Amino acid sequence: MGRTSLWVLRVLWLLLPLTAGVAMGDLLDGTSTAVGLVAAIGLWGLWAVGLVAGLVPTTVALTVLRLLAPAPVVVGVIALVDDPGPAALMAVVAGAAVAVVGFHPRVGRVFVQGSAYGDEARFPLRPPGQLVLGPLPVLWLALAASVAAGPLLLAARQWAVGAVVSAVAVGLLVVLPRRFHVLSRRFLVFVPAGLALHDPLVLAETAMFRWRAVRSLTRALATTNALDLTGGSLGAAVEVTLRDPESVVRKERRPGDSTAVRTGAFLCRPTLLDGAVAEGERRQRHG
């Protein structure tokens, strides 16, 4: 299923110039030659980057793709507001399809697995709820708006405003993609010898356990007292129960601070929870 979803995403992205290109062309009608040229170069450039990212599944490509995936639907909405019609509506539908498939958990699993070493099975973790419901969309909009507006303002000879917005865009490009990439590097890992929780948001170092130290790996009950290592993500969790308490090193709020905590059980939230539990049980039987 994951590979099928990936191919659907590739086809949808490949067809964007046909499904959304007309509306984008109409949106640029009436602009100056310089503005139209800069916009066209930017759109084709981003489309090419997204196409390459979709062809080479890795965690880096996943970050690139998910930074780009919301853009087509935003452009489609702008086109629909500017000139409601079939072409603009098609752009919105095509863009929404790209975004939905691009953020599908099965697609995320394929990309994360693409960076795996040897006989690893990687399952991405859900992002923290407080980020999804707040800062992430706002930061993405700030990044997208500044990156798009800066060059267009300069092309329109709005030198002062264009220079300021472009400087903001450069600053955000230096900082934000690396922060977004942390979300692509959070996963529960199964290997022949055991399991590991790799979560740079929650843990100061990867927590690793051999199968002989793991008692069970199951869907967590609401009443569990296991150590919460989910980072505030939403949804059902996996509970890993250990035979004896072991230490995990959690990050603290202050940068650089960490605390070693001994626990006999902990929680994490893979995006594909049932698949992670099934894979963990299979690995444990053969471990």
Helix-strand blueprint:
Elements: H1 2-14, H2 16-19, H3 21-28, H4 33-55, H5 59-68, H6 71-82, H7 86-102, H8 105-113, E1 121-124, H9 129-132, H10 135-155, H11 159-184, E2 187-191, E3 194-198, E4 207-210, E5 214-219, E6 227-228, E7 238-251, E8 258-268, H12 273-286
Brief overview, please?
With 287 residues, this protein is of the alpha+beta class. The chain has helices at residues 2-14, 16-19, 21-28, 33-55, 59-68, 71-82, 86-102, 105-113, 129-132, 135-155, 159-184, 273-286; strands at 121-124, 187-191, 194-198, 207-210, 214-219, 227-228, 238-251, 258-268. The chain has 12 helices and 8 strands.
Question: What does this protein structure show overall?
Answer:
The chain is an alpha+beta fold. The chain contains twelve helices and eight strands. The protein has helices at residues 2-14, 16-19, 21-28, 33-55, 59-68, 71-82, 86-102, 105-113, 129-132, 135-155, 159-184, 273-286, and strands at residues 121-124, 187-191, 194-198, 207-210, 214-219, 227-228, 238-251, 258-268. Strands 1-2-3-4 form a four-stranded antiparallel sheet. α1 packs antiparallel against α7. The longest helix is centred in the middle third of the chain and has 26 residues, at 159-184. It is elongated and about 70 Å long. The two termini are 26 Å apart.
